[in-house]
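Amino Acid Chain and Its Fold in Token Form
===========================================
Scope: a single protein chain, as residues and as a discrete description of its fold.
Amino acid sequence: labelled as such and written in the usual single-letter residue code.
Position: the record begins directly beneath this header, with no further notes in between.
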Amino acid sequence: MGHGRIIGIDYGRKRVGLAMSDPLAFFARPLGAFEPSAALEELMRVHAHEGIERLVVGWPLLPDGSVGESARQVSHFIRRLEKRFPGVEVIRWNEEYTTEHAKDLIAAGGKPSLRSSGRGRLDAAAAGVILQEYLDDVRRKSDGPVDASSNQAGSE
């Protein structure tokens, strides 16, 4: 792993869920949900204090694998991220089923940090699921440096 944290992002027009890796990039921890501009400010704060190595953004493909309106909105947000964080790698991660997985985690009460995260906890939990799937996939595939993975969604 390089320097800085890996951030998971679940983009929504009203709220953006954020999660952050631990320093060794083993675990995702939900940071919360923010309106889009506030999410960018939170990311700037994290970048200033911890550094950000990589942004893993949930990529909402349609069931047939094509790009729909949601993915186009995410693409616009990704462009904002790339302008705000030059030099930080942005990865599109297939987010199929992450919201359902996040709901299951909250319902099971297995993650106290999710239960206590308050408003927008589903968005923050979904960001945590996106990031944890990415971290687990990277660990499965590589003993060495992190690189692109099979779940990484292609660009438009």
Summary: Helices lie at 36-49, 69-84, 98-108, 112-115, 121-141. Residues 5-141 form a domain with the Nucleotidyltransferase; domain 5 fold (CATH 3.30.420.140). Residues 33 and 120 are 5 Å apart (CA to CA).
